[in-house]
Amino acid sequence: MKDSERAAKALLNAKAVFLRPSEPFTWASGIKSPVYCDNRLLLGYPAIRAEIEELLKNLIEREYPGAEVLMGTSTAGIPHAAIVAEKTGLPMGYVRSGNKDHGRQNRIEGASPEGKKTVIVEDLISTGGSVIEVAEALREAGAEVMGIASLFTYGLRKGIDRLAAANLKNVSLSDFETLSRVALEEKYITPEEYEMVSAFRADPNGNWYEKA
């Protein structure tokens, strides 16, 4: 089994990524989606969490050789960055969504990324906006941002294009296409529901849900 399939199965088992094509979720953007993602749920399943963090460690070592510091995104990326930093012996920090309004008014906490090859650890990539802001903050602080290591990506065109425009590489443990296929194989969804999920992947802004 490929690492992306192992990760997909782990996410499904923890219900961190949940497929419900017949009763779609509504995103803040108004898009009707058959998928709901909450990777924080992984933290409550020690065995699954351990598998995910080992896969994430392997991904970072494979895709970002020479990485010198890991930076988690606030807040969901922080625990994954911390656990993988412990596994690899790398320094770790995190980037706040904004500067503190007291004390030293830091935005970047923990290890200093200045002059260092830095990998951003993120739990989820959708449109890419928040992680691009994190990368910009790190670059302003003098970091050499190698790219992003994320747990899961929807693979939305908008996100792909925005990351490319920001000159940011992203590598995810798993993606929506792989997860959908594994969900079908593991009987989390029916063949009919898989067709609905496929229609959403092809056109997230379309009326795929009218088949529900």
- The best one-word shape is globular
For the biggest sheet, the summary is: 6 strands, mixed
Strand order of the largest sheet: 7-6-5-8-9-10
Termini separation: 32 Å
Question: What does this protein structure show overall?
Answer:
The protein is 39% helix and 22% strand. The chain has 212 residues and is α/β, with parallel strands linked by helices. It has a six-stranded mixed β-sheet, sandwiched between helices. The protein has a two-stranded antiparallel sheet with strand order 1-4. It has a two-stranded antiparallel sheet with strand order 2-3. Helix 3 (78-88) links the parallel strand 5 and strand 6. The model has no long low-confidence stretch (mean pLDDT 94).
Write the SSE topology.
Layout: H1 3-13, E1 17-19, E2 25-26, E3 32-33, E4 35-37, H2 46-63, E5 69-73, H3 78-88, E6 92-95, E7 108-110, E8 117-125, H4 129-140, E9 144-153, H5 157-165, E10 170-175, H6 176-185, H7 191-202
Parallel strand pairs: 5-6, 5-8, 8-9, 9-10
Antiparallel strand pairs: 1-4, 2-3, 6-7
Keywords:
212 residues; alpha/beta; two-stranded antiparallel sheet
TL;DR?
The protein is 39% helix and 22% strand. With 212 residues, it is α/β, with parallel strands linked by helices.
